[in-house]
Amino acid sequence: MSKELKWLYQTSVDKLIETKETVKDPKDPSIEITKTVKKKSSVKVGILKPSRKLFESAEIFYATKVADYIRIGLLPFSLVQKRYANDGGPLSEPEKKVIEDLRDEVTKCKGEYFAFATDDTSDDTKTKKNELLVRINDINTKLNNIENAYSDIFDNTAEVKARNKTIEWWVLHLTYYAPDKDYKCIFGDGNYEEKYQVYDGLEDQDDPFLLEIISLCSYLISFWLTARGSLTKDELAKIEFNTMEKLYLETVSTYKIEETEEKPQVQLTEEAKKVEDVPLVPLASPIIPKIT
User: Fold this and answer.
1) Burial class of 82 by CB neighbour count within 10 A (0 to 12, 13 to 18, 19+)
2) Which of helix, strand or coil describes residue 233?
3) What digits encode the pLDDT tens for the residues 20-46?
């Protein structure tokens, strides 16, 4: 008996299912009308709750990647940071002050968010919590805009490269969906390299439905991994993934599907075809009287 899967979050993504419907013409039962209909069907999507063993595997993967990148010549983050600190740093004093203020505001918003009681599910509380998450996201965007001016300096350090690869590793291991009855990992059951090959294949297929699942789960998993570094265990347990999914759908996703119905095709029933197949007896030529 397989072990029951546990989830960080479960949701669904709509998919267009194509079916053919055949009905008899109410005015003439000998005629059948067939039409192709594309209807929405919700497919379950889940982000797996990682086990202790999976956490250990992720840590080993990160450490291995850092060592690999240093071996091929990338500098450690600490060394690059030290070099720029000795030169006064890449940021001006006003920029440092703005970043400090923005980070203080993020801390304040987080404090207000987690101050709400866990059993408070009123609409007013949900609205306020959503506003706080949106505010945190806006502040982080401003921080990124400032830091992007010098982020390229650190993008090619061993730790940053390894961190990005580890986020990818988590996405490949935690993204599940249920195309039929049971859940399965969208990238298969192999190791990292095998899962990555499946990922390449899915990108080549260019299926909007599958790519939307990957995009949504990548967004939520990245958010969860970032939160793990700045929140306590109790705070992490209070994260509302559904609010972050709503934010994703409003600001990131471009996935749209519409139900359609193609022009019906008319065909005769078998009984009508038998009648149609009976050969016609030609009428005798009319006798035209000769006029003298």
Assistant:
1) exposed
2) helix
3) 777 676 776 767 777 777 888 999 999
> Cα separation of 250 and 266, whole Å?
42
What Å distances lie between residue 222 and 47, 164, 165, 216, CA to CA?
A: 12, 10, 12, 10
pTM check: above 0.85: no
- Separation CA 149–CA 273 (nearest Å): 75
Per-residue buried b or exposed e for 227-246, using 16+ beta carbons within 10 Å of the residue's own CB = eeeebeeeeeeebebebbbe
What pLDDT score was predicted for residue 277?
52
Q: Residue 253's CB: how many other CB atoms inside 10 A? A: 14
How far is residue 47's CA from residue 143's CA, in Å, rounded to a whole number?
Answer: 28
222: CB partners within 8 A, 6+ apart: 167, 171
